[in-house]
Design goal:
This protein is 39% helix and 19% strand. The strands form two sheets. A seven-stranded mixed sheet has the order 3-2-1-4-7-5-8, sandwiched between helices. It has a single domain, classed as Spore Coat Polysaccharide Biosynthesis Protein SpsA, Chain A (Alpha-Beta Complex). The protein has 232 residues and is an alpha/beta fold. Strand 1, helix 1 and strand 2 form a beta-alpha-beta unit. Bound molecules: guanosine-5'-triphosphate (GTP) and magnesium ion (MG). Guanosine-5'-triphosphate binds next to strand 1, strand 2 and helix 3. The site of magnesium ion (MG) has 4 residues, from loops.
């Protein structure tokens, strides 16, 4: 079985359309929304959809603890379910186009993890201001240089992963609670021998809702790869 995991914090404007789009593209997929008690009522929307479709489920968390903590909580739950053989991970705001999912899952048959990548030929970003493009590009080069991973888009949050690979990770060994989780996940997968493929995606600006990017992302990102490297 395939499970698409979507972390949410204040995504009421996007989540319903995204869930229906994913379910229409892949009839065999299920969706798990991991919500950190969004004040805008994201979870209530998901609960309503769940009444009409058993393929949709919700993991409700008490408070906002960051994207990384939300995914790790979701991993610990889905690893209990032996039926889930493949997962996808994506943002709720339509930056990650669900139309890419079938091709990404196809590629997964020949590797352990497929990464939706902005920094391979054919990939790119639409709608971001110049400062954000520069920050993202050089942030990636910086992390890749330090960690020496064979992945061009280390900060991508769009993946398909074989569940058997997730089983090899020790979930308690994750340090990053926020966006640096994306780098750490790839690093820990790589250390466990994962074979990656990058699939070119055009990353779009968020559709609805407000941007949550802050200067914190820079301070978190500068130290994160060093912390990962020097951890035993
Ligand atoms: N559960 C949970 N989800 C989160 C948290 N922070 C962000 N998210 C979700 O993680 C995904 C990526 O976050 P975004 O806010 O879109 O980050 P971004 O794409 O860098 O920035 P913007 O799109 O400009 O806001 C979205 O689906 C968010 O709703 C959190 O603390 N908990
Ligand atoms: Mg976003």
């Amino acid at each position: 079985m395939r499970l698409i995991i979507i972390p949410t914090y204040n995504e009421a404007q996007n989540i319903e359309a995204l869930i229906y789009k994913i379910l229409s593209i892949d009839q065999s997929a299920s969706v798990l929304v991991v919500d950190d008690n969004s004040p805008d009522g994201t979870a209530e929307i998901v609960k309503r959809i769940m009444k009409g479709d058993i393929r949709v489920s919700l993991l409700s968390r008490q408070k906002k603890q960051g994207l990384g903590k939300a995914y790790i909580h979701a991993f610990s739950e889905i690893l209990k379910d032996v039926q889930i053989s493949e997962i996808a991970m994506m943002d709720a705001d339509f930056s990650h186009n669900p139309d890419y999912l079938p091709e990404m899952f196809n590629l997964l048959s020949n590797c352990d993890a497929v990464i939706g990548s902005r920094y391979v030929r054919g990939g790119g970003i639409e709608g971001w201001e110049l400062w954000r493009r520069i920050l993202s590009y050089f942030g990636n080069v910086y992390c890749k240089t330090i960690l020496r991973l064979p992945v061009y888009d280390l900060t991508s949050g769009f993946y398909c992963i074989k569940t058997e690979m997730l089983h090899k990770l020790e979930l308690s060994s994750f340090d990053a609670s926020g966006y640096a989780f994306q780098i750490e996940l790839k690093y820990l997968l790589y250390k466990k021998g994962a074979r990656f493929k990058e699939f070119p995606i055009i990353f779009a600006n968020r559709l609805g809702g407000e941007s949550k990017i802050s200067s914190h992302i820079i301070s978190e990102g500068v130290l994160a790869p060093w912390r990962m490297l020097f951890k035993k």
